[in-house]
């Protein structure tokens, strides 16, 4: 039987040895306290492996063969309701019958209580079969977990940690419905005039005399927007300072909105109107909806004004999810390219034996492995940090040793999750496009036809760097976190730089020396941008004691002006940060599993050259564009006067 798990050695590595599943199982089973849960890592791991095997077969046998049809059939609107492709409906019947929507939902809410990382790895296999399926799949379990996370955050979930279970939670009924595959949810943020710029959102929510909330406005591009449940961001407070472009973020609130009620007389009462289904370039099987809300009843989540905060609660997991979508698509494109190149002949040999194409195929394979390494590490740390935080917050009667361990481990996981997630979203989505494009090129003329499906992969891939925060927004976040991190703890940066320099010449393992050199290069680029950022205030940071950097740099701080060069180079810096982060992760793997050294070597061979070129660009270019921008800004303000 075909399987998208057992035919994939790199994926099997993570199932078998590349992940500390015992640590994940322990936090998922609330420190082995769940009454009907696993009591040790070995049993849990065995179950996770069985689930992955089942999913690998289901995806290969039931989803992948339907992908082309799902794409052709598409979706449309009929009498105000979305009509999905019949093949998509069949694919989702298979997923539901296999109980896969339950995967990561806690047992007491009707789920299987598996780690989110397993859910993401299964999602990767779904995406390898079809991106539209993966899109819609993630708006089931992912939205149930969002509802739970929101409820925990606002304080409407109670735990009995001694008994290892949730006692009550606000959205228990809806989560149960989703677990059974009877409903799904969606996330409604984007509006016609506000995408990356959330401060500009206009949809508003008003309260009546009884205190009930009603939402009015328009949302666009809503994936799986034909769902029963919506998390909607709406404005509840007026913008206080119209001159501050970020002021609008404070006036947003998060609402839970039900699309419709099915009435006893068999009719359906709708509160949200499906205006249209967007006609897109790719993933035609997924519904992307434009919606209108006309005094739709909503339930406030958290407090008013906390909408942006609540969006951030989910952001990391959502971006990790898109990372795995991208890995699945890139895996499919790489395999398609290899299979074709090993068969197609040109000038006396198969095209895979032509030097340039052999180089392409090698890079594609290495990049997919790098994306998966970053994805697994990012997802692992995100899940560990969320679950340790939960246990730490709700656990009563923990031993001093357990409390101490949580205190020690939590900040480490939190910092790594924060660092790796934008890098994953950036790398995986950009590479998915590049790899899909190469796959099409390797197919020559037939790549441009529908015969092999190479064009579908390229069409599908192009949305990945756009949704859940564009690549440019990820780059800005990664750059700001990095630079502000140095400003906050300059001494730690100087120490890290010194240690990396030392390791780059003294480490016994030549691969460790090469990774350290990459770290030095990365920190040198960071230092350059920081020094240039501070240059407006002082000639050189060299005259200022390290302990005073923070004070000097942050005094009179204007992120628009002071970050200008770093913003211009944010994407280049992000690409160096990615090269460095992947190298570190692969080195950690190689230290424990020597067979991974070969993957690290392949990655370093390309990353070293790339990072050097990026460093050169960062340190020698950009001033001309900044001068142009300040000339135009000057001219505009003179004209305004
Ligand atoms: C198929 C699809 C599904 C989607 N699903 C959902 C969904 O389920 N829910 C939802 O709420 N939204 C969804 N979206 C919307 C998506 O999240 C937005 O399109 C995305 O955030 C970008 O916003 P925008 O389209 O308004 O582009 P803009 O924000 O106008 O950006 C245009 C360009 O400018 C760049 N840019 C913007 N600001 C800056 C800056 N400060 N510095 C540098 N560059 C900048 C962007 O990176 C981009 O390249 C979906 C979109 C698509 C296409």
What this model shows, in words?
The protein has four domains: 1-183, Acyl-CoA dehydrogenase/oxidase, N-terminal domain (Butyryl-Coa Dehydrogenase, subunit A, domain 1, Orthogonal Bundle); 184-305, Beta Barrel (Butyryl-CoA Dehydrogenase, subunit A, domain 2); 311-469, Butyryl-CoA Dehydrogenase, subunit A, domain 3 (Up-down Bundle), CATH 1.20.140.10; 486-640, no CATH class. The protein has helices at residues 9-16, 21-28, 41-63, 67-73, 86-97, 116-129, 131-154, 172-179, 307-341, 355-394, 400-442, 444-447, 454-461, 471-488, 490-506, 510-534, 549-554, 559-562, 564-568, 570-592, 597-620, 623-640, and strands spanning 76-78, 81-83, 158-160, 165-168, 185-188, 204-207, 213-223, 229-235, 252-258, 260-262, 268-270, 272-277, 288-301, 345-346, 349-350. The radius of gyration is 25 Å and the shape is globular. By secondary structure, it is of the alpha+beta class. α6 crosses α9. The termini are far apart. Strands 5, 6, 7, 8, 9, 12 and 13 form a seven-stranded mixed β-sheet that branches. Strands 1-2 form a two-stranded antiparallel sheet.
Number of helices: 22
Shape: globular
Query: Could you name the CATH class of the largest domain?
Result: Mainly Alpha
Q: What are the distinct ligands in this entry?
A: flavin-adenine dinucleotide
CATH superfamily membership of the largest domain = Acyl-CoA dehydrogenase/oxidase, N-terminal domain
Q: Please state the structural category.
A: alpha+beta
How big is the Rg?
25 Å
What is the number of strand segments? 15
User: What would CATH call the architecture of the largest domain?
Assistant: Orthogonal Bundle
Helix share, percent: 55-70%
Mean of pLDDT: 94
Number of domains: 4
Major sheet size, sense and barrel closure: 7 strands, mixed
Which residues form runs of ≥5 with pLDDT under 50?
none
Q: How is the CATH topology of the largest domain named?
A: Butyryl-Coa Dehydrogenase, subunit A, domain 1
Termini distance? 73 Å
- Beta-strand portion reads 5-15%
């Amino acid at each position: 039987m075909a399987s998208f798990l057992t035919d994939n050695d790199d994926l099997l590595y993570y199932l078998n040895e590349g992940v500390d599943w015992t640590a994940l199982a322990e936090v998922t089973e609330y420190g082995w306290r769940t009454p009907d849960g696993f009591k040790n890592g070995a049993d849990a791991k065995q179950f996770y492996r069985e689930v992955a095997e089942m999913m690998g077969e289901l995806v290969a046998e039931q989803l992948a063969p339907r992908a082309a049809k799902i794409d052709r059939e598409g979706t449309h609107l009929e009498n105000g309701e979305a009509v999905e492709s019949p093949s998509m409906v069949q694919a989702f019947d298979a997923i539901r019958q296999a109980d896969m929507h339950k995967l990561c939902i806690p047992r007491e809410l009707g789920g299987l209580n598996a780690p989110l990382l397993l859910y993401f790895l299964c999602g990767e296999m779904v995406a390898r079969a079809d991106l539209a399926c993966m899109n819609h799949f993630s708006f089931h379990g992912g939205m149930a977990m969002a509802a739970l996370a929101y409820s925990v955050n606002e304080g409407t979930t109670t735990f009995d940690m001694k008994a290892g279970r949730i006692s009550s939670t606000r959205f228990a009924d809806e989560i149960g419905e989703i677990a059974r595959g009877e409903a799904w949810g969606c996330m409604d943020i984007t509006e016609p005039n506000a995408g990356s710029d959330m401060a500009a959102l206009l949809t508003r929510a008003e309260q009546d005399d009884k205190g009930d909330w009603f939402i009015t406005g328009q949302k666009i591009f809503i994936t799986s927007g034909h769902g029963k449940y919506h998390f909607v961001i709406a404005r509840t407070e007026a913008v206080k300072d119209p001159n501050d472009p970020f002021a609008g973020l404070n006036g947003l609130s998060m609402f839970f909105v039900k699309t419709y009620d099915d009435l006893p007389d068999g009719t359906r009462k709708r509160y949200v109107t499906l205006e249209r289904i967007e006609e897109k370039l790719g993933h035609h099987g997924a519904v992307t909806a434009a919606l209108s809300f006309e005094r739709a009843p909503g339930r406030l989540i958290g407090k008013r004004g906390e909408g942006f905060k609540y969006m951030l609660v989910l952001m990391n997991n959502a971006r990790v999810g898109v990372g795995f979508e991208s890995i699945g698509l890139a895996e499919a494109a790489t395999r398609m390219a290899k299979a074709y190149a090993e068969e197609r002949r040109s000038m006396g040999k198969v095209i895979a034996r032509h030097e340039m194409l052999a180089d392409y195929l090698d890079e594609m394979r290495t990049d997919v492995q790098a994306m998966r390494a970053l994805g697994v590490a990012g997802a692992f740390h995100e899940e560990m940090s969320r679950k340790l935080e939960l246990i730490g917050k709700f656990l009563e009667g923990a031993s001093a040793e357990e409390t101490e361990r949580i205190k020690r481990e939590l900040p480490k996981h939190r910092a790594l999750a924060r660092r790796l997630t934008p890098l994953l979203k950036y790398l995986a989505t950009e590479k998915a496009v590049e790899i899909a494009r190469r796959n099409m090129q390797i197919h020559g003329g037939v790549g441009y036809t529908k015969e092999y499906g190479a064009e579908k992969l390229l069409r599908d891939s192009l949305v990945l760097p756009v949704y859940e925060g564009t690549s440019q927004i990820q780059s800005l976040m990664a750059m700001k976190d990095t630079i502000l991190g140095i400003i906050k703890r300059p001494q730690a940066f100087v120490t890290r730089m010194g240690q990396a320099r030392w390791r780059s010449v003294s480490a016994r393992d030549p691969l460790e020396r090469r990774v350290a050199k990459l770290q030095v290069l990365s920190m040198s680029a960071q230092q350059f941008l920081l020094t240039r950022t501070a240059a407006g205030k002082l000639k050189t940071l060299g005259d200022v004691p390290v302990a005073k950097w923070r004070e000097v740099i942050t005094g009179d701080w204007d992120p628009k002006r002071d970050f200008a060069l770093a913003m211009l180079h944010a994407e280049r810096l992000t690409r160096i940060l990615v090269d460095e982060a992947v190298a570190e992760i692969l080195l950690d793997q190689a230290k424990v599993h020597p067979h991974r050294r070969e993957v690290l070597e392949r990655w370093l061979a390309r990353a070293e050259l790339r990072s050097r070129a990026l460093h050169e660009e960062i340190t020698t270019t950009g001033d001309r564009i900044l001068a142009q921008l300040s000339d135009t800004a000057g001219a505009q303000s003179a004209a305004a006067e």
